[in-house]
Amino acid sequence: MVKEIGTAPDCLLWQLVKHNHSKLIKSGKFTFSREVGNITNQHTAKNTGYTNKKRIDVLSACEGSSVKLFNDTGHTIRRPKSRLSNKNFTKSLKNQAIIRDIVKKTRPQLAFQISQKFSKLVTIKTIDKTD
Description:
InterPro entries: Ribosomal_eL28/Mak16 (IPR029004)
Number of strands: 5
Domain Ribosomal eL28/Mak16: 12-122
CATH topology of the largest domain: Enolase-like, domain 1
Strand order of the largest sheet: 3-4-5
Protein name: Ribosomal eL28/Mak16 domain-containing protein
Shape: globular
């Protein structure tokens, strides 16, 4: 049995980043968080991307014609590059069911939120920067 070296419990990590981190947004009585892996942007231990071992998120790709599914498997702590899985999907609502099935394998409670975020990213019109 191999134990992961250098990992801290989720509750300890949450206590460290709860009040201050670079992606924290405080506006009056509301507090939001914008880190990768936080789908709902709520600042809670359940939703944060810092403390979850299996992070998952949908991001718009740089070129604007595709959507990237970011998946952190939580395995192989010694090889961070192989820990992350990025898949590119074209901006089409046909891919929504495929993404929902991928998410159900790792974090089934977030499948609905991921599909909503994917549909929003697909319907957003990209602005071409022509000079």
